[in-house]
Amino acid sequence: MTVDRLESSEDFEFGTEDRVLVRVRENGSSGNIEAKFEADVRGFRKGILGGMDEVELDPPWDSTHGVTLSPYDAEWEVLGGEDGDE
Length: 86
Hints:
Order of helices and strands: EEEEE
Number of helices: 0
């Protein structure tokens, strides 16, 4: 099954090829930080059955398929875009 990749999503405040800081907390937006990393945004996937979209990230570790997260799975901070914006 092929999933169409989107260039942007209304559920996120950043777009494809932006670099983001991701803070994954124990309970989504509360609790202890369980993971923190910088990643490049590959694209977005449409939410299933009208649910929230998901972002596809290229993490700093070796990953064949990247990481996919929903907006409520982490806290997001935009670090810059592909064109060098910071």
